[in-house]
Amino acid sequence: MNTQNQFNWRCKHTWKRSAKNTMWCLIGCSIGDFGTILFFQLTQIPWPVLAIMTLAIINGLITSIILETVILMRQQFKFKEAFKVAIGMSFISMISMEAAMNLTDYFLTGGAMLTWWVIPIMLFVGFITPWPYNYWRLKKFGHACH
After folding, report:
1. Which residues contact 105 (CB under 8 A, 6 or more apart)?
2. CA dist 127 to 43, 69, 93, Å?
3. What is the pLDDT of residues 62-93, one digit of tens each?
4. Inter-residue contact 64 to 32 (CB < 8 Å)
5. pLDDT, tens digit (0-9, with 9 covering 90-100), for 38-48
6. How is the chain split into domains, by residue range?
């Protein structure tokens, strides 16, 4: 049998749960990413756009891992286990989210530039990009639709 034909992309429960997980990841990534870009925008330190965006991506990954680790620890995970889960289950999602957000920023503003109109677009693209992957991961690891 072809397992691809058996995979169910129509489970509302899993879409809702994966949306919640994706939102937490987006919040974590955005804190580090936007904070870094805003810092350089306000201080006007003359760094190249690519360097600022690279640092923003790294900081976004770090803050997302920290936030997800804390959330898991509040769910009674030990630190080491929470950290492993945060990195293992979410890292590909975080990288795709960060890449999507920063590419959107680059194409719309020239990069490393936060404006009132680009932030919602960056957040939307950052959410939509990893959401199907997060759904797939939930399904792959046996989370059923109840």
Report:
1. 37, 53, 111, 112, 113, 114, 118, 122
2. 28, 19, 10
3. 999 999 999 999 999 999 999 998 887 778 89
4. yes
5. 999 999 999 99
6. 19-140
What's the count of helices (H) and strands (E) in the chain, helices before strands?
6, 0
| Identity of the residue numbered 123 | L
CA 112 to CA 47: how far, in whole Å? 10
Q: Specify the DSSP class assigned to residue 142.
A: T
In whole angstroms, give the CA distance from residue 146 to residue 143: 9
What is the residue type of 109?
A: T
**What is the 3-class SS of 15-38, one letter each residue?**
HHHHHHHHHHHHHHHHHHHHHHHH
Residue type, 73: M
Residue 22, CA atoms < 13 Å, CB-side half-sphere = 26
Instruction: Please check whether residue 26 is in contact with residue 100, taking contact to mean a CB–CB distance below 8 angstroms.
Output: no
Find tokens 């690891």 and name the residue. Answer: 141
* Residues shown for the chain: 146
User: Contact, 125 vs 96, CB < 8 A?
Assistant: no
